[in-house]
Amino acid sequence: MKNNFIKKIIKKSILKNTNYKIKTRFPPEPNGYLHIGHAKSICLNFNIANKYNGQCNLRFDDTNPKKEKKKYIDSIKKDIKWLGFNWYKKTKYTSNYFNQLYQYAVQLIKENLAYVEELNKNEIKKYRGTLKKVGKKSPFRNRTIKENLILFEKMKLGMFPEGSMCLRAKINMKSPYIILRDPVLYRIIYAKHHQTKNEWCIYPMYDFAHCIADALEGITHSLCTLEFQDNRQLYTWILKKLNFIQKPPKQYEFSKLTLEHTILSKRKLKILINSKLVNGWEDPRLHTISGLRNRGYTKNSIRMFCKKIGVTKQQNIIELSLLESCIRKDLNMSSPRRMAIINPIKIIITNLPEDYIENFSVFNHPQAKEMGTRKILFTKEIYIEKEDFSQKKRENYRGLILGKKIRLKYAYIIKAKKILKNKNNEINCILCKYYPKKIEKKIGIIHWISIKNSIPAQFQLFNILFICKNPEKQDNFMQSYNSNSYILKQGYVESIINQEKINHAYQFERIGYFLKTKQEKTKQMISFNRIVSLKNKYRNFI
Ligand code: ATP
Ligand code: MG
Fold it and tell me: Pfam families recorded for this chain (predicted)?
């Protein structure tokens, strides 16, 4: 963890008091799956707790039963564990404190600091004013304490319809902080809650519940994203008025992660998922934790990425290439090398006999020799990549050109002599001559597979989901959806891979890192996800 500004604040608190026990929390709302932005917050909260021998709670911020689901709770827990973090003791829920929260609301009413509102949502908004215009007091602001207590009790008993009433704090309709212009504390919602079932029909707002839950759990540093900066005024107001004055938790804000060519906001993710342009929350093109995991990203790569981006107050968009460099770095040492051909083109070596077979023993990893060796076959018929052949000379082209030589990696030099085409004038195969030498200056090297040493394979190629850099900023982000974000290809891989484990990552030489997702079974082809290409230029490889 870099020495970020939050760590500096914590160090200072510890210097002042060596018995100081750091307590943080990660407070997801169970209304969607976690994404890489959440991973930033998870790494920050859990790493701080771990580093300073403190605790980090997992607390579901479950105050809106209409949007929350048990399946989201389960996926969130799974993702945090997969990232390698353990929360302190039992999983916590804001709903654990519904009784206490209700009592605290009553306390505010008794101190004439809250009142039952009958204006509707739009009227409340209108009365609230703007940054330029001060707010106006509600005609219901001056009810008596007794009347407020009775009405709030009746709200709780389910005697009013949804939206007809709410509880508001009585603060200051002229405050320069709009959040302090009598914010709503409780609203009526008739919906079954995943934890408390039908026990409640009034639910606290985030701003009311969060600070109290933090205080009840003894959180010391309540870390959230920058859009809550103004809410801090309300956070401290509520705690002060409720007499949490002995070591109250403090809120600190940091910038949200935004990543190029993707969206992270759950609201927008839901639009995308409902449109069926992606295959649910776990689609490998999404930057949800489960999507990344399915694609083949490792927990280490995500944690490395979070470490690299750091924690600041500057809001900027992070380049996708940074995330890609992290997964390449993590997979580089652990992934065995293999050869695969995604867009095959056949080569026939004319000066080799039909049944010619030569074995080469090659290292599975150029640096990690302990990964051992394997045998590859060199035979009369082989596959190379279509992109590695050109009929004509092209600038900066390093592949095989008609009439020119190329070196086959680990094997010999070949020269392209003739193209055989089918009726539709498409290339059928290329006739080549081989030279039994392995080294020649100034010629390129390409990968290849002997037909005898290959099995058919399917490749799922994932590309950026949105063409524009910052789709979150676009009014209609769906317009920049990349229709080439998913491409299915059929090619070949070395046969040895069929005997190897599933969910195993390989580096296919010159192409990229791939995750084996399916084994060859009857009628089912062995299948791979492209986790990341070797270079950025392959990102839109079709
Ligand atoms: P979203 O905008 O994706 O719906 P949210 O803030 O509503 O996010 P929560 O479930 O409330 O989602 O978030 C839990 C925690 O994760 C919060 O503390 C929040 O600040 C943090 N968080 C959410 N998105 C990001 C992000 N992009 N970068 C960093 N932290 C984030
Ligand atoms: Mg939220």
Answer: tRNA-synt_1c, tRNA-synt_1c_C, tRNA-synt_1c_C2
